[in-house]
TrEMBL record:
Keywords: Hydrolase. The keyword Hydrolase applies. This is UPF0173 metal-dependent hydrolase APQ99_01856. It comes from Halobacterium salinarum (strain ATCC 33171 / DSM 3754 / JCM 8978 / NBRC 102687 / NCIMB 764 / 91-R6). Signal peptide: none annotated.
């Protein structure tokens, strides 16, 4: 499984031969990538705020996944018909991956953050094997937490039943978890690797990302914190 961080909450994930893009927003200070250069098979949307869906129209050839409300908005606003509406707890098989939508605690007004609701906000767990109660030792699983506060479902559901190897968690504070709460989330998730995201994009979410590293250590967690450069790609299978 390959991961690329394009800044903010925008990630590219390759599982086998299947390419995913999560929350396309390329107007951020971490990336030099031209969205036109990317050709994802599937675009996953965690919620409807502008800093997560701003570039959806650049990927009209892709299949989009989100809540039913958000999928309907893409059709009405952008004429994007190749969508799958799903909801919390559901799993869909997309190419070589299984994608599970999980809870995120946040607001979810479409586009501007006000007005029309896009349903519940979400996170995603992507795995190269189907989630079952029998642990698959060879599975590789990545959790994108979306925009969220700290919530016990991370510990009680995501960690316990979906068993992610790596997690990308928001650390920018103000609109999401800050470094301290994100570190608690990482400890609860018991992942091998954690990646900070959703920070330093605009003034309210500017933080010292090293605070996140220190807070993770303070929990006693053995998780390896990786602070990525924008547009950096790594092979998750080599880290877990």
């Amino acid at each position: 499984m390959e991961l690329t961080w394009y800044g903010h909450s925008t990630w590219g994930v390759t599982v086998g031969e299947t390419d995913f893009l999560i929350d396309p927003f390329f107007d951020n200070p971490f990336t030099d990538t031209d969205p036109e250069e990317l050709d994802p098979d599937h675009v996953l949307l965690t919620h409807g705020h502008a800093d997560h869906i701003a570039d959806v129209d650049r990927f009209r050839g892709a299949h989009f996944v989100g809540t039913p409300e958000l999928a309907g908005y893409l059709t009405d606003e952008y004429g994007i018909d190749d969508t799958t509406g799903m909801n919390l707890g559901g799993t869909v098989e997309l190419g070589d991956a299984y994608v599970t939508m999980v809870r995120a605690d946040h607001s979810n007004g479409i586009d501007t953050g006000y007005g029309t609701s896009a349903g519940m906000p979400a996170g995603y767990v992507l795995s190269d094997t189907k989630p079952t109660q029998v642990a698959e030792e060879d599975a590789t699983t990545f959790y994108h937490a979306g925009d969220t506060s700290l919530q016990t479902e991370m510990r009680d559901v995501t960690a316990t039943f979906l068993e992610p190897d790596a997690a990308a968690v928001p650390v920018g504070d103000h609109f999401t978890m800050g470094p301290m709460q994100a570190a608690v989330a990482v400890d609860w998730l018991d992942v091998d690797v954690a990646f900070p995201m959703h920070y330093d994009t605009f003034p309210p979410i500017e933080v010292d990302v090293e605070d996140f590293e220190r807070e993770v250590k303070a929990t006693g967690s053995q998780t390896d914190v990786r602070v990525l450069d924008g547009d950096e790609t790594l092979d998750l299978d080599e880290l877990v």
